[in-house]
Design brief:
By secondary structure, the chain is α+β, with helices and mostly antiparallel strands. It contains 3 helices and 4 strands; from the N terminus they run H-E-H-E-H-E-E. The longest helix has 15 residues.
């Protein structure tokens, strides 16, 4: 499902106050990083991550791989920071960053 511009704007507003939950660094996408991404997306639905892996092309490839593996969408990317969204119908309202 594609995100509309209005939804992107709302998600960016929520994401502005978030701190990066997961950092992908020189070790790349390890199994532990992927597990933590999936756990964070299940719990919080909207998360901010930091990708510090080198030049733009490598960073773009890593983010695309993250989106493919997790099934998440990316409402925003600025520099090394990306905002990821994956809705969870069974999310705990106390943990979720999205209003219910």
């Amino acid at each position: 499902m594609a995100i509309t511009n209005e939804q992107k704007k709302a998600y960016r507003a929520i994401g502005h106050t978030l701190n990066p939950i997961v950092t992908v660094a020189s070790n790349g996408l390890t199994e532990g990083v992927i597990d933590e991404l999936n756990r964070a997306l299940d719990d919080h639905e909207l998360i901010k991550i930091k990708v510090s892996v080198g030049d733009r092309e490598v960073k773009k490839a890593v983010i695309e791989e993250i989106l493919r593996i997790t099934g998440a969408e990316m409402p925003q990317q600025i520099g090394n920071t990306a905002l990821l969204l994956r809705r969870n119908p069974k999310a705990n309202p106390k943990l979720s960053n999205l209003k219910r």
